[in-house]
Amino acid sequence: MPSVAMSTKLEIDQISRGFCADRVVGGSDAADGAYPYQVALEIRNSLFCGGSIIDNSWILTAAHCLDRLTPEKVKVVAGTSILKNGTGQEFEVESLKIHENYNSKNVTNDIGLIKLKKSIEFNDKMKSIPLADKETRGGRRLTLTGWGKTRYPGETTTKLQKIELLSVNDSDCATIYSGRVDKRNLCTLGIPGRGACQGDSGGPLVLDGKQVGVVSWGIACARGMPDVFTDVYSFKDWIEQNIKSEV
Predict the structure, then answer these.
(1) Is 64 a catalytic residue?
(2) What phi-psi label fits residue 23: left (phi over 0), alpha (psi between -120 and 50 degrees) or beta?
(3) Which of 109, 118, 224, 234 is the most exposed place for a label (fewest CB within 10 A)?
(4) Which residues lie across from 147 on neighbouring strands?
């Protein structure tokens, strides 16, 4: 595991509400259809966050992506790796669900759900991804995808990006961020120049074909500090209960 410099209190205080709007830094173009669970969240045809298909009517994302929004403002785009020229399939949103204990100041319980008005008909380019069924230990090689910024400052990309990152032990990440993370978070680290960025928020972190994390917050972008994710396994019961209650 690469060593990580300790952050200053000033750096931590500068983290407010997560990345909330950009891209994978240091990644490479994803092959078309390689990540059929990946979706883009758009407002007025502009990317603001990512998400993942976890059921034919449900999208998993971060709470901070949905905070203060109404369903009619959000559009979900699925079935494409390129965000332009009307590629992919668009879905209208029926409802938004933010975790009842979400705290925007500390970015805790940063998880949310989107229910679609129309169910997705699965095919080679649109499929659901299973949720993690166990804790993710440190030192595991994970895959992050997203359309967020490829550099900071900079613009979001039209081509889906992929990158491999290593998971960081909970205790190490908590020490680095002065206790701002806990067991309901998952941290990853890439070498400086590789990591999540704005626009990747809400997107999926995957291990062995299962989603283990949701992009939450970090020090933008790929500056040698761990990226912080919501740990999917810790919220699996919440996710499943909310989906069942809406059936």
Answers:
(1) yes
(2) beta
(3) 118
(4) none
Say which of 64, 99, 216, 231 is annotated catalytic. Answer: 64
- The question of whether 110 is a catalytic residue gets the answer yes
pLDDT (tens digit per residue) in 180-190: 899 999 999 87
Residues near 115 by Cβ (< 8 Å), separated by ≥ 6? 57, 58, 93, 94, 95, 96, 97, 246
Is 28 part of the annotated catalytic residue set?
no
| Per-residue pLDDT band at 195 (split at 50, 70, 90) | low
Instruction: Count how many residues are written for the chain.
Output: 247
Q: Which of 22, 52, 99, 110 is catalytic?
A: 110
What residues contact 245, with CB distance under 8 A and at least 6 apart? none
The 8-class DSSP code of residue 108 comes to: B
Alpha helix locations (H) across 168-245? 170-176, 236-245
Dihedral pair phi/psi, residue 80, rounded to 5°: -150, 155
Catalytic residue among 52, 128, 167, 201: 201
Over 60: is that where the pLDDT of 234 sits? yes
What would the pLDDT profile of 121-165 be if each residue is shown by its tens digit? Answer: 999 999 999 999 999 999 999 999 998 755 444 555 688 988 888
Helices within 69-169 (DSSP H only): none
Spatial contact of 194 and 222, defined as CB atoms under 8 Å apart:
yes
